[in-house]
Amino acid sequence: MLEVGHRLFRFPGGLKLEHHKRESLVEPLLRLPLPEHLYLPLVQHQGPAGQLLVTPGQTVLKGQPLSRARSDREVPIHAPSSGRVVGQRRWPVSWPPGSEADCIVLETDAEEHWIERHPRPDWAAIEPTELIEMLRAGGLAGLGGAMFPTAAKLRGDWEAPGIHTLILNGSECEPWISCDESLMRGRPEAVIEGGLILARALGADEIVIGIEDLMGGVGRTLERAAAEVGGARQVRVVRVARIYPEGGERQLIQVLTGAEVPHDGLPQDLGLACLNVATAATARDIIVEGKPLIERIVTVTGPAITRPRNVIAPLGASLSELIAFAGGLKGPVERLVLGGPMSGLPLTSDRIPVIKGSNCVLALGPDDTRRSQPEMPCINCGECVRVCPASLLPQQLFLAARTEDHDETAALHLFDCIECGCCAQVCPSHIPLVDWYRHEKGLLRERGIEDGRANRARARFEAREHRLAAREDQRRRKREAREQRLIQQAAAKSEVQAALERVRARTDGPEDEQGDRTP
Amino acid sequence: MRLTVAGAPHLPPISTVSGVMRQVLYALLPGVLGHVWFFGPGILIQIALAVGFALSFETLMLKARGKPLQPFIGDYSAVVTGVLFALCIPPLAPWWISLVGMLFAIVIAKQLYGGLGYNLFNPAMVGFAAVIVAFPLELSQWLAPRSLSPGLPGLAETLQAILSGALPAGSNWDAISQATPLDALKIGVAENRLVSEIRSSPIFGDFGGQGWEWIANLYAVGGLWLLYRRVISWHVPAAILVTVIAVSTPMWLLGPDTNPSAPQHIFSGALVLAAFFIATDPVSGCSTMKGRLLFGIGVAILTLAIRRFGGYPDGVAFAVLLMNMAAPLIDRLTRPRTYGH
Amino acid sequence: MIAPILVLLGLLLSIGLVLSMIARRFQPDETSVVEQINAILPQTQCGQCSYPGCRPYAEAIAEGQADINQCPPGGEAGVRALAELLGREPKPLDESHGVHKAPTVAVIDESRCIGCKLCIQACPVDAILGAPKLMHTVIADECTGCELCLPPCPVDCIDMLPRRGPFVWPLQFEPRPAPMPSTQKREPDHA
Questions:
Q1: Which residue of A has its CA nearest to C53?
Q2: Interface membership of B5 toward C (CB under 8 Å)
Q3: What is the mean pLDDT of residues B213-226?
Q4: Best exposed site among A297, A330, A513, B93 by fewest CB in 10 Å?
Q5: How far is CA C48 from CA B156, C43, C95, C96, C142, in A?
Q6: ipTM score
Q7: Of A121, A115, A108, A106, which is closest to residue A137 (Cα–Cα)?
Q8: Backbone Cα Rg of chain C
Q9: pLDDT value of residue A155
Q10: pLDDT band of A35, cuts 50, 70, 90
């Protein structure tokens, strides 16, 4: 069995970045005042939308399910506030960038009418499968940003005979983001209890919480909370070195265990499951208080924000409300990013709503994004090779992608790229490497889909040709048989005719001149 | 609000191409100053000529190819090529040596291959190889170091010599020129003289040549600074120096009369300059770390072989060019194992 | 004088012999060439190349009867792939056979369909489901966009709609990208 966190390892490459987390941890954590309207996309996770349960005009209670999951890959959404469902309309969303999606528009009232909740503080008595059902019904998805349906992470058929260690990812390696640290400082007991609940659901014996070595008192806070909640024996807090991207799932596992997740496998194949600390705290809220996932902590920060802070925001709140709550913009804003500066998504509008994976909104001014040099050709300096945590060859990948050599990019293991941004951050030629890799991954996926379609079309075409040829064959044989029969009939007919003639000749005697016959 | 939409990372990288090139130039400064001290101001004029020709040729070629002048003219890569070339030729070489050298380096080896980032061969070394093969006489007229000569030519005399291609009246080449230590070694060994005997000549210092070993040390200081600043990686310099020591030491132990020792090799000729500045040229070298080690080993072995068996006193330029040819294949064969595979 | 010439001649002859033996031994199998060409073709089975399907076109290319640039759905990429496979010079698409278009899917307007079966018989990959006097419908995942069902339909009830592939991250974003087109009414419901 793998030892987790007793010895720390290093992953290759990586960068030491400036933290910029102090800025947003100065102000206390507050709840956003309830906006008038909430815009809830049906898809707030990696997977298909659930089944819609509400109709326009319907009044809903706080926490009422608005959609239903029909499999582990679907995640339901719930009303973050009581109010009235105005309807469904197209509204800007964060993915794909610049697109709109169907969102449920909820007109809120300040009544705080909750649905009937079923708190279960006695979760230790609940069977793991039932726990997973409750978490799924509570709308739990990965809150670290990837929004993977948690139920699908908690159960499935994996290589290893069960999960032995749950890793809670609190390392939050990307600069500027501090929502997880804010959560761990403010509600450490929720994180611990959530971890215990998830461990029970997984059947895991141990829980390891990975935090950054510079997170100061967070480690002590968590250890104290673990002792209070009663999980001190099971729960260990491990401080990992602050080298971006140590918070990437694969890199964190490598640091804590020295083992690598197989490229075609999952952490579960090693007997590990890795979940974010916010996911754990939300799991605790779902089970212990019966409250579904309807709000989350979002860091509003950046050089262009007046008073950076963390804020508890209801899902569906427009980012403009959060920015206003953080004191608004301090000057012109050039770029709004959902996530961190290294791997965050560029936003096209501040109307985009908060969804389950929205961990941070980062506002950058023109001075922050200005480049001192245009994109230059690659000078083969090898810095990108030095910093890649997946030991890829970014420079070769770039060359192959640029020459549209799709076989080569696949052979260079493009799909093992975690899009951390380290390579592009050190490139002296300022080449947008991650854009190229994302683009190339899309083309490879497209090519895979097209190849599949072409194979199916070829098979169907050949089957059809076969069928038509068989039908032709059958017709031909029928025709020939019919001809044969006709010939036989004709032959039979002439035989009969001949026989009749013979009989007539015998019985009738020769004909006289008048044609009469002699009796 | 008008938002620009671009992919991550959203904060621009700190390093730039011109920044990298400029740091290489700063690192060359100690060596250049040492050169001026020991051999006079000729080297500065050569640098000025080479850089001037390099930038002019680059401008002409960019215009001819229809490419914009910026940012390529301002990226200092042609400057680095010019400086490295100038450091390899004698300080009194006529001005047209730099012209021909830069013609081969910038026009043929760099721009005709596609410009910055596309050249297969190290441009400075292509230029140097062209001139040493075409003008062996001019490339062998080196000066004696300050400590030995009665007086180095002053600035005016140097300028006159370089620009006119002829020496000032009253002096001739035989009087002021001096074979380099490597020249002397090669000629001496061919004459079956012992190494120790050859090295008793006053042009030799403790390790390499007088003056030359100082300059090599100064290059090394600049190179170590580049290592510290992460402009180059340790693989190529370490591979070259370790291989030189590893190959020449047994040879010297077995035959001290015909083989120089490792320190003598390292501090003669352009080996240190090559280890830190020439073989580390990113574009024409390898991009994988293991590949760089192999590249360095190859350069070292080829240099020693050419010094021992070849027709030229210093084989660094040809060794680098030969390894440039092998670099793409080495890259292909030394791919690292990807995470999870 | 004679000796070097004889040696060189001998060398050249032996090299030529070795090469011809190798060429004979490693000759590409004719049928496998057709398979390889067919693997490159997009399998739209549209007939724009003037052959009744992709396999007949592949056979024609292998026999030298047809040129490699007659397939509009394959586009320039297809021509280049064929050129690389066969060791020929790539050439621009022959537009007399049609232009390269974005992928499309046929959709039957159910309010107008009369159940005549003519489109079902025309579809080269059997992608239309239906029976006489009963509703016909196109299986969207199997439709190749060949448009062979359009001419036979007597009531012109079939439309070609763009087929959206997976999202591909663009290399360049416009300053403010326009919102993506709204969902087609006829796209299958997830429910």
A1: A461
A2: yes
A3: 92
A4: A513
A5: 80, 12, 10, 9, 19
A6: 0.88
A7: A115
A8: 25
A9: 87
A10: very high
